[in-house]
Amino acid sequence: MPRQSVHMRDQKANQLAMHIRADRQAALNMIEEITLVIVLWGVFLLAAG
Predict the structure, then answer these.
(1) What digits encode the pLDDT tens for the residues 26-41?
(2) 3-state SS track over the chain
(3) Between the CA of residue 36 and those of 5, 21, 40, 41, what are the distances in Å?
(4) Which parts pass through the membrane (predicted)?
(5) 1 has pLDDT over 70
(6) What is the per-residue pLDDT for 4?
(7) pTM (two decimals)
(8) What span, in angstroms and rounded, lies between the C-alpha atoms of 46 and 16?
């Protein structure tokens, strides 16, 4: 029985780690998109100026 609870705890830890990794990836993607938008706006403003 104790072995099963350890297994459950490991599963929970793995789920949490996966969730954190997914969140971090989503945040990085968002930062990438924002950076791209800023760069494109900068290019547009330079071209328009």
Answers:
(1) 999 999 999 999 999 9
(2) CHHHHHHHHHHHHHHHHHHHHHHHHHHHHHHHHHHHHHHHHHHHHHHHC
(3) 46, 22, 6, 9
(4) 26-48
(5) no
(6) 79
(7) 0.67
(8) 45
